[in-house]
Amino acid sequence: MNVGVFERRACHEEIVLCHDAKTGLKAIIVIYSTALGPALGGTRFYPYESEDDAIDDVLKLSKGMAYKNALAGLDLGGGKAVIIGNPVTDKTEPLLRAYGRFIESLGGRYITACDVGTSVPDMGHIAGECSHVTDRSSREGGAGNSSVLTAYGVYQIMLACAEYTWGEPSLQGRRVEISGIGKVGTLLVEQLVDHGVMVVVTDLDKETVSRVRQAHPEVDVVDCTDTLIRSDIDVYVPCALGGVLNDDTVRVLRARIVCGAANNQLSCEGIDKDLQDRGILYAPDHLVNAGGVIQVADDLHGFSFERAKLRVTNIYRITREVCEHATKYWITAGKAADKIAEQKIIEPTRGRNSKGKCNIID
Asked: How many whole angstroms separate alpha carbon 123 and alpha carbon 133?
């Protein structure tokens, strides 16, 4: 039996279908929640095989953004948008401007930013028709590339996980392996090396690997992710594709901590419980990569790098709190993070106690 849109939307507040025949625009904007404020979330430009696939993806992504924004302590709800098409061949300035007009028609309920298939220059085109857009270039008064604070946030969460696992907030002398050294991964390598961490990397792009090795000769390289996962490591850092944690990899993974910036790392539900049963702490990805959304959110108020970085530092405390709730309630860190986010969304005025710590719903 086919499941209708209303059944699939669950708790989502609003779905907007955007079509502009002149430019070929086909887009879907989904607002999951505005309980904490306007719904912030990126726009993904992707060649989905079907409209159903696009709807399913944007529904899931919008919920994830609501949880991420709530966990990060932002006064923002969560949403997401997808443009159906190939970003290489179908993306044009008129199409993006048409899309911007649809966002503007929502009156500020949804604020967009970059995602897969869209870039900082694209946000500039959208901003030509819309005042509810962030992630613009520094030349246009925006925050620019959010990779710096994303990587900084990943490192803060690593330290919190290290303290929870080994009793001290340090990775010095530990062996950390990074799968995927794009913008975030490369910046993370720099931070780890600077703090005396033994770093091992792998990436399909050999030129990127070569550049990292030239900058940091002390970094080791392995030929593939499978080799990396089976190695004697302390922390595994997936920063490339999603779905890398599955039944096969969990059985052979030898790390004590998984903490990476890749989205949707778990191949299916229950994998985080399998990791927990093996004594491996999995830091949920929507918490780990929250540094980027904190930077994007700060852009809404006239970007200050120092202010945004200070707020990203707070992710350390949030991660410790998530770990404590997981232990207290005998649940995974991912479920603990979700419970905290859900309470903030459901009861936005009661999600924090007088000391600023999040309460959890039984």
From this structure: 7
Please report whether residue 49 resides in a domain: yes
Active site (catalytic) residues:
80
Let me know: does 177 contact 236? Beta carbons within 8 Å.
yes
Is 180 known as a binding-site position? yes
Strand partners, 77: 39
Q: Determine whether the annotation assigns residue 185 to a binding site.
A: yes
Give kind and range of the element (H or E) at residue 162. helix 147-166
114 and 256 assigned to the same domain = no
Same domain, 147 and 130: no
Strand partners, 110: 39
Give tens-digit pLDDT for 11-60. Answer: 799 999 999 999 999 999 999 999 999 999 999 999 999 999 999 999 98
Pair type for strands 77-84 and 25-33: antiparallel
Listed residues 139, 168, 193: the one ending a domain: 139
Annotated binding-site residue? 16: no
What are the angstrom distances between the C-alpha of 194 and each of 178, 187, 198, 208, 222? 15, 11, 10, 19, 21
181 labeled binding residue: yes
Same domain assignment for residues 246 and 279: yes
Alpha-helical segments (H) within 72-182: 93-105, 120-127, 147-166
